[in-house]
Amino acid sequence: MNLVIKLCLILIFLINLNYRCSDGVERQAEILRGVTIRNWPYADRLSGKYEGYVVDLMNEIADIIGFEYRLYFSPDGKYGVIQDNRINGMIGEVYNNRADFAIADITVTDPRKRFVDFTEPFMENDIAILVNKKNVGNIRSFKDLSDSDLAYGTYRSGSTHHLFSQSTDPVLHKVYSQMEKHPDWMASNAKEGVDKVNSTKYAFIVEGSFAEFLTGLYCDLTYIQDKKQYSPRQYAIAMQKDSPYTARFNSAIKKLKQNGRLAQIKARYWKDRCEDESKTTNNNDNNRQLKNDNLVAQRPPKGPEIKLADSSSYTVSGTVHRPVLITSAKVIVAFILLMAVIVY
C-alpha cells in the first residue's frame, strides 16, 4: 500500500510540472501555431532550422510568457491582401484559424485590421527607394523618381503597392500609374527586385528597414527616403481577433523594448559589412548571389556578445518548439523533499 501511495505522489508531482511555465504561473503548457514568410533577415530556414530576426524575437516572447510554438511558411508566399473581399497570405492563415499568429515584416494597415488584431509594434520605418549608386543622379524624392528615366516598382502583392493604389497624393498617384502601365516593373519577391536594381536602371520601392539591411550587404546600392514621409509604418505580430494572447504578447514586446533586448536583436542582423570590409577587400559582397527566390540567408557575423534566444529550441519536421522552462526554486525544493519521503 505504501508503494502505491508513493507512486501516486510521484504521478501527481509530474502532472503538476506540466502546469508550470517560465513566468511561475500554473497552467498547462501551451503550443501555438505561427506562420511566417521567407524574407531574410526576418526569417528563413537554414539547415532544417528556422532563423532570423523575427524568430529570435518570438523566442524571447516565448521565454517571457512561457509557451511552445510551431512555425510554418505561408502556403501562398504572400503577406496578406484583400481580393474579392477575401484575405490571403499570412493574414488569411490567422483569420481562417490555421495559425494563432503571423510574424514577419508585416505592416499594420487598416484593411488588415478588419481580419486580425495587431500587437504592439516591434519596428517602425517608412518607404524608401533602393537604387544602384551609379543610377542615383538627382533623385532625392518620389517626385524626382517619377520624373526620371528609371524603371521602378515594388512587390506585386503587399502593403506598399496597396499604399500607392489608394493614395490621392498626386506624386504617389503618378508613381502608381506608371507601375500599372508597366506590370513588368513589379517584383514578386526580394530576389527579383534586387536583381533588377543590380543589373538594370531600376529602383525598388521597399520599407526603409529592409533597404537599410540591403545597402549594408550590397555595397553598390544605396537608398533614399523622401523627406515628406508619405507613409510612416509599423511592423507588428498579427493575432486572431480577440485572442487572449494579444495582451500577453504586448506586455512581452514592451519589456523587450524597455530592457534594450529588441535593439540588441536588430543589431545582430543589421550590419554594415561594406564599411567593415572596405579597408581589406574589394567589396566582394557586391557579387553575392540570390537564390531560392529569396536573399541568401546568411548567419549574422559576430557582434556584441548577447545570449542567443534560440539556444534551447530544436527543430522537428519544420517545427520550432520552445521547451517549457521550470524556474521556480520552490519546485526544486519540493522535488527533493518528495524524494526524501519516498526513500525513507
Q: What is the H/E string?
A: HEEEHEEEHEHEEEHEHHHEHEEEHHHEEH
β-sheet strand percentage: 15-25%
The CATH architecture of the largest domain can be named as: 3-Layer(aba) Sandwich
Low-confidence runs of at least 5 consecutive residues: 17-27, 279-330
Radius of gyration: 24 Å
Q: What's the helix count?
A: 13
Distance from N terminus to C terminus (CA atoms, Å) equals: 15 Å
Beta strands, count: 17
Instruction: Kindly identify the CATH topology of the largest domain.
Output: D-Maltodextrin-Binding Protein, domain 2
CATH superfamily of the largest domain: Periplasmic binding protein-like II
**Main beta sheet, described?**
5 strands, mixed
Give the fraction of residues assigned to helices: 25-40%
Bulk shape: globular
- What is the strand arrangement across the widest sheet? 4-1-7-15-8
Mean pLDDT: 79
Under CATH at level 1, the class of the largest domain stands as Alpha Beta
Describe the structure.
This protein has 2 domains: 27-122 and 236-290 and 298-329, Periplasmic binding protein-like II (D-Maltodextrin-Binding Protein, domain 2, 3-Layer(aba) Sandwich), CATH 3.40.190.10; 125-233, Periplasmic binding protein-like II (D-Maltodextrin-Binding Protein, domain 2, 3-Layer(aba) Sandwich), CATH 3.40.190. It contains 13 helices and 17 strands. The protein has helices spanning 2-17, 53-65, 89-95, 110-113, 142-147, 159-166, 170-181, 190-199, 208-215, 246-258, 261-269, 273-277, 329-343; strands spanning 31-36, 44-46, 49-51, 68-73, 82-83, 86-87, 101-102, 117-118, 123-125, 127-132, 151-153, 202-207, 221-224, 233-235, 238-239, 314-316, 319-321. Strand 16 and strand 17 form a beta hairpin. The two termini are 15 Å apart.
